[in-house]
Amino acid sequence: MASIDLRDASVEFKIYNARGRSLRNSLMQRVGGRIEGASGDHVCIRALDHITLSLRPGDRVALLGHNGAGKSTMLRLLSGVYEPSGGAADITGSVATLLDLSMGMDFEMTGRQNVILRAVFLGMKRAEARKLVPEIAAFSELGDYLDLPMRTYSSGMVLRLAFGVSTAIQPDIILMDEMISVGDAEFAVKARARLETMLSAARIFVLASHDLATLRQYCNRAIWLKEGRIVADGPIEDVLHRFEDRAAHGDQGALSGNVAHA
Amino acid sequence: MGKTRYWPRARKDIVEGLASWRIYWALGIGDIRQRYARSRFGQFWITLSMAIFVVSIGTVYGFLFHQDLHQFLPYVACNYVTWALIAGLITDSSTVFTQSETYLRHEPLPKTVFVMRMLVRHLMNFAHNILIVPAVFLVMRHGVHWTVLLAPLGLLVVMAGGLFSGYLLGVLCTRFRDLPQIVQNLVQIVFFVTPVMWPSSTLHGAAAWLVHLNPFAAMMRLVSEPLLGDVPGWRTVGLACATLVVLGALALALFARFRARIVYWL
């Protein structure tokens, strides 16, 4: 069974810094969550503010919102990395966060050793982990490089292997920040197919993205975040319509505001 | 979050963390492998550095304190090998969570896993260092007694202390980033006031409390005295156990209360 329930969950960061006030001033632009008053020597940033939602099997959720709306924080909250500072978060099922594919890879070790290490990390026994190697090796097309230290790899090779390992074990819940694409055109097709297989087999899938076309393609539900709060939550088309309307009416923050807010 | 929720969650973290031995074993061994990667002697540099240090400093101090080297070198070897473990555990306790930042920020693993990672690393270090003890015993013709069998018990107490210290200092040092430096300096000072390199018999009268009331000395002697052929006295055992209990209570209380905040502080 896979499910995620957030009840009145908040994520509040206290930024401890002797120059808290000047930091507060520089953060006063409308980027990011609500900045609460500074008490004493720290500033409070409420990245997520009293969020209540539940995700059930079959949910394919698009996370919408401009930079700093709380999408990444939300992914970390949903994964269990952040435990809410207020409220509760209950997560059932195995979670894969495809947030950092090459996490924990040791470049002095060979590709093969790294595959095994990562599989052990995901809860496998060493013997089980070894059985994964041939399939990942074939997929990543590394050939003899598999038994060379990873420091000899090109960055493309590292990414292929990291992607291969990250998608080798099927989780119940997948959380992703932007759609992953790896390698040259030919490999990218193969990778996309592999990723889509994994996504469709997952019970719950959450994708944060600025690319509305991608969100339409993979998701059936959308959650629109603004300043750490849920503005809208519902069927993807309804939410996207409202979102695009808002964008058209001059809320430049609604669509990807990379440049405007840099 | 209600107060009542801290303890069940902390217990879950500890139980699941300790059960994930495959992960912390792989991480701890990986740390050592990474440090000595591409070196010819590899991790045996640990043993070699320790041997060089113990023999040179033991000889010098032996002459300074007018000690019989046949007695003094084994004494320094057993003490220093154990001290290196204790000092390493304390110093690295301050970075257990900051060192594992990438993992903590991406995977919802129990925090205990990363404390255990540090323990595995130092246990492996100790396993390499302890090799010099039989070598020194052999060269100095020092006898081996049945009391050696008590050393693993002492080691267990030291490792438990390391686990608690990992929880306690790990949490504190993640929140207060000046602490690791302070800890490092304190460990240095404690080294000088603990009878590691000097015989405790050189202290007389009022100064003897340095040894009698020193919890670090008690922990160290729990391992080093059995190696040398003595059964640790009740005072040593009592002090070490009392230290463990106090440390454990403080560590678990702090860990339970602030465990969820660790990632926020990274």
UniProtKB/TrEMBL annotation, chain A:
The keyword Transport applies. One of its GO terms (molecular function) is ATP hydrolysis activity. One of its GO terms (cellular component) is membrane. Coiled coil: none annotated. InterPro entries: AAA+_ATPase, ABC_transporter-like_ATP-bd, ABC_transpr_TagH-like, Bact_Polysacc_Export_ATP-bd, P-loop_NTPase. PROSITE patterns: ABC_TRANSPORTER_2. It holds the Pfam family ABC_tran. Residues 23-252 form the ABC transporter domain. It comes from the Bacteria. Keywords: ATP-binding, Nucleotide-binding, Transport. The keyword Ion transport does not apply. Belongs to the ABC transporter superfamily. This is ABC transporter ATP-binding protein. The lineage of its organism: Bacteria, Pseudomonadati, Pseudomonadota, Alphaproteobacteria, Acetobacterales.
From TrEMBL, chain B:
The chain crosses the membrane at residues 44-66, 72-90, 126-144, 150-174, 186-213, 233-256. GO terms for molecular function: ABC-type transporter activity. It holds the Pfam family ABC2_membrane. The keyword Transmembrane applies. It is found in: Cell membrane. One of its GO terms (cellular component) is plasma membrane. It is a multi-pass membrane protein. Residues 26-224 form the ABC-2 type transporter transmembrane domain. The keyword Repeat does not apply. Keywords: Cell membrane, Membrane, Polysaccharide transport, Sugar transport, Transmembrane, Transmembrane helix, Transport. GO terms for biological process: lipopolysaccharide transport; polysaccharide transport. Belongs to the ABC-2 integral membrane protein family. This is ABC transporter permease. The lineage of its organism: Bacteria, Pseudomonadati, Pseudomonadota, Alphaproteobacteria, Acetobacterales.
